[in-house]
Specification:
Structural class: mainly beta
Order of helices and strands: HEHHEEEEEEEEHHEEEEEEEEEEHE
Strand content: over 45%
Number of strands: 20
Shape: elongated
Radius of gyration: 30 Å
Length: about 525
């Protein structure tokens, strides 16, 4: 239906040449023509639309082409742009109004286990957005997909063979209103905090007794100096909150490169990427509790929250395509995500008539390693299609030495919202054999999970009365190993009569929790 047109094109070796032609209509009546083509690219809007159109399930998606046009830095921010999806707490997906426990996630067809110790949820902020090829969210079930979900199945796909060789470097800075160039509070950490993990001051020493061993020691009525020595051993860093003169702007670095080799009917290529983001964020929060009966205010607290978030990722993918019908890919990704939080709470408990100043120093590091080997084969003549893949995903989440302590004094005033008339100094609250998680307390936890998975699908096409049909059979295998350990340790005051100790009125916590007070018999480990 178009007039013939000829035009010269300059095609250079090993380069992609785009040729754009406009054809004039020709008044010719033609019979129906059907053109079929395999979708090679999956990273642009058109490819995602075609995938949705041809899918037998209801799904929504977003391509890397759209991701590049957005300011989103992580996959959690990208998911918010998909229809029917939202993000809770900056990292947990909510699909069609159903919370994280009702959703599942796949990375390159490999299951992503939960990153949280006490909930079935995956933290999507661990994946930088620049490593993604697309994100597809399945909203209805399909026989060849896992079925442990009711809201949505989130499929994250990373890059494959590029069209041509490339290398990109992006350096960025971000400025956050209310944070950047303002005073920022933090505390003593490890020299590797900027990389997203701690290797020195927070983890328990390798020779420190385990949970059962330490309890057995106590049951054997061990000498008190043993607990004192163990306390000194783990008290290897400052508890004091420090203040920087200002919060520096957020920093980001993204490097990506790829190669493509095409010879006769064989294509071979790979994509490699490095991503790093370091941001500071200040937030304010309020916590209030009212009695449901008389509407009386129980407590009124204000929180100042200082967060230093680090996300880094390494990606390496290789792909091989033979005659356009056989594709084998090997995809690998390693990510590190950490949150370093300094939380300062102050306010009044009207129920107990106390004014409190509480501190929470917390560092959480999550690491994900995923490797997947897969293949897709179409046998010409019969058009039988065979897919297979196998992979492993390793997740480690460490929360070493979360430190909490509190200063309090009596509250005497006219009522709710009134300033404290009591001008006495705040007193450091320390335990004497108790286990209050906010008084000279240290919390440690470790989560490790391994997921091994493999699957294969065989699809056989046929026709009934000229209409295309297909039968697909397959097998899926999955094995999980999950270990979680948590423990609470406390520094106790050894004397019951500590109310009159002037040391506990010192606003500098390092003058209370220090090696000297272990040596002079004031502190011990519980």
């Amino acid at each position: 239906g178009y007039q013939e047109k000829q035009e010269d094109a300059d095609v250079k070796p090993n380069q992609v040449t785009n040729l754009y032609l406009s054809l004039m209509d020709d008044a010719v009546n033609l019979k129906e023509a059907v053109v079929t083509a395999q979708v090679i690219r999956r990273d642009n809007e058109s490819a995602v639309v075609v995938m949705q159109k041809n899918s037998t399930v209801i799904q929504s998606g977003i391509s890397s082409e759209e991701i590049k046009r957005s300011p989103d830095k992580s996959s959690s921010e990208v998911i918010k742009r998909v229809s029917g999806a939202s993000i809770q707490d900056g990292k947990f997906a909510v699909i069609r109004g159903l919370a994280d426990r009702y959703n599942m996630a796949l990375l390159n067809n490999t299951l992503l286990p939960s990153t949280e110790p006490d909930r079935k949820a995956f933290a999507f902020d661990v994946f930088p957005s620049n490593i993604l090829d697309n994100i597809i969210i399945m909203k209805t079930g399909q026989p060849n997909l896992p079925s442990e979900w009711a809201g949505g199945l989130i499929q994250l796909n990373t890059r494959e063979i590029p069209e041509k060789n490339f290398f990109n470097v992006t350096i960025g800075q971000s400025f956050t209103e209310g944070t950047t160039f303002k005073p920022f509070k933090t505390y003593e950490g490890s020299k590797t905090d900027f990389l997203g993990f701690d290797n020195s001051v927070r983890p328990l020493p390798g020779n420190f007794p385990g949970i059962v061993a330490l309890n057995d020691l106590k049951l054997q009525i061990l000498p008190s100096d043993t607990l004192v020595q163990l306390g000194k051993q783990i008290n290897n860093s400052s508890w004091k909150v420090k203040q920087r003169k200002m919060a520096y702007p957020g920093q980001s670095l993204q490097m990506s490169g790829g190669f493509a080799v095409r010879k006769n009917d064989i294509q071979f290529g790979g994509v490699f990427a490095l991503s790093y983001n370091n941001t500071l964020q200040y937030n304010e929060g309020t916590r209030k509790r009212y009695d449901w009966a008389d509407k009386a205010l129980y407590y009124d607290y204000n929180d100042a929250m200082y967060n230093n978030s680090v996300t880094s990722a390494l990606l390496g993918n290789l792909g091989l395509v033979i005659k356009g019908n056989h594709k084998i890919s090997w995809k690998n990704i390693y990510t590190v995500n950490s949150d370093n939080n300094t939380i300062l709470r102050d306010g009044v408990s009207y129920f107990s008539a106390t004014e409190a100043q509480r501190t929470n120093l917390e560092f959480v590091s999550s690491r994900v390693l995923s490797s997947n080997l897969g293949g897709d084969h179409i046998f010409k003549g019969s058009e039988i299609r065979w897919k297979w893949n196998g992979g492993v995903t390793l997740i480690n989440r460490d929360q070493p030495k979360t430190m909490r302590y509190s200063y309090e004094r009596f509250y005497t005033s006219g009522g709710e919202g009134q300033p404290n008339a009591n001008a006495d100094p705040f007193i450091y609250q320390i335990q004497n054999g108790g286990s209050d998680p906010k008084l000279s307390a240290m919390f440690y936890s470790k989560l490790a999970e391994k997921v091994y998975s493999a699957s294969t699908d065989l699809s056989v096409p046929f026709k009934i009365k000229g209409i295309k049909q297909a039968v697909t059979v397959g097998y899926s295998f999955q094995m999980r190993q999950r270990n979680f350990e948590a423990r609470n340790l406390f520094f106790d005051y050894t004397s019951a009569n500590y109310t009159y100790d002037s040391t506990l009125r010192d606003p500098n916590v390092d003058n209370i929790i220090n090696q000297q007070n272990f040596d002079n018999g004031k502190l011990t480990l519980n």
